Amino acid sequence: MANQYFKPVFQQRGLALITAMLVVAVAATTAAYLGLDQQIWQRQSENFTDRAQAEVVRAGAQEWVITILAKDANESNSDDLTEDWARKLPPIPVEGGLVTGQIIDAQSKFNLNNLVRNNQPSPPDIGTFQHLLKTLLLDPNLSDSVIDWIDSDSNARPAGAEDIDYLQMKTPYRAANQPLQSVEELRLIRGFTPEMIEKLLPWVTALPQPTEINVNTAPQEILAAVFYTLPSSAVEQLYQQRPYKDQAKLTTKLQELAGGKTLPPVHIGVKSSYFEITIETLFGRYQRTTQALIQRGADKESIHAVWHSQRLPGWIVSTESKAGENPEKPAGGKI
Ligand SMILES: [Ca+2]
Ligand SMILES: [Ca+2]
User: For position 59, what pLDDT does the model report?
Assistant: First the structure.
């Protein structure tokens, strides 16, 4: 009862706090920029000002994300969807425009680079990916060509493809033989069509190294793919009873659910080091979506952007997201 009563108040406070943090971060960056360049700003055309202002606000919003993730690392040793960083902000008015941001745990998705660990195919991860492909009504054998694309050798797996296959194509190229840089790189891998990649985008990611899947943030579909040897009722229970505040609690729960059977050695955890952020700004007619991958290191000070990219407008204002729901991803970018 107490929990039910306090939850909305707690959520409002959390939202108010992160909103205030965003406004402060943006105001500080804008003030610094104005102090330096006020006269230049005044001479520029309206359009340029909107663009420049959007850029300043984007930089401020990125600072805001880093502050929130650092604060979270100080306050907890696990990551779950009840925490402040996980709240989707409504568009917030700042200095003549609108800004909004969202942080998603990248380790809530299946990291394609988990398929090869220490340059060896990883059977539990292959099982997860194949199960996910089946759920999406895609061919599970596609895992072979992804593994061949990542592993350093040139020996094709039964349903895979290596240099010898790619070099015979109309526009020849070679297999990367290294981890994927982005999910969009799947376009180069034999067997994948843009439609298939679009289907996979909400569920997979490509992180700079193999990672654990965070059981506290993963959608139920991902948990079903990870624990494909468990009955769906057990996965449902695992999902309903989270968050698990430490690895020991998760292990105890899994042992209970497995009922004496041995689970595959899956790579799972209760905290995350990689977060995907989306920052949307609207100034005048200038609308921009920035996406970035943020890495939070073991050292709480070491939070940085691994990459960031800008997307074409047309997404921010038109998408009304319901609370707790991820907005649909825009179409993939160029390779
Ligand atoms: Ca946390
Ligand atoms: Ca290879």
Answer: 82
Distance CA 236, CA 213 (A): 17
Which of 2-16, 47-61, 142-156 has the weakest average pLDDT?
A: 2-16
**Ligand at shortest distance from the CA of 272:** 1
Any idea which ligand is nearest the CA of 75? 1
Q: How far is C-alpha 93 from the geometric centre of its chain's CA atoms?
A: 26
How many angstroms is it from 112 CA to the middle of ligand 2? 15
pLDDT in tens, 281-327: 888 877 888 888 999 987 656 898 888 786 644 333 333 333 333 33
Identity of the amino acid at 305: A
pLDDT in tens, 232-285: 999 999 999 999 999 999 999 999 999 888 888 999 999 999 999 998 888 887
Residue 80 CA, ligand 1 centroid: distance in Å: 6
The residue extents of the domains of the chain are 1-109+202-335
Q: Are 288 and 310 in contact (CB under 8 A)?
A: yes
Q: Give the distance (Å) from ligand 1 centre to CA of residue 34.
A: 35
Instruction: Give pTM, 2 decimals.
Output: 0.81
Going by C-beta distance under 8 Å and a sequence separation of 6 or more, which residues neighbour residue 237?
257
Kindly give, in sequence order, each residue whose CB lies less than 8 Å from that of residue 34, ignoring residues fewer than 6 positions away: 41
Rounded to whole angstroms, the Cα distance separating 236 from 223 reads: 9
Gap from CA of 199 to ligand 1 centroid (Å): 29
How many whole angstroms from 276 Cα to the centroid of ligand 2? Answer: 28
Contact, 176 vs 162, CB < 8 A? Answer: no
Nearest bound ligand to the CA of residue 146: 2
Residue recorded with tokens 């420049």: 52
Dihedral sign of CA atoms 293, 294, 298, 299 in order: positive
Mean pLDDT for 174-186 is 94
The CATH fold assigned to 1-109+202-335 is Pantoate--beta-alanine Ligase; Chain: A,domain 2 (3.30.1300)
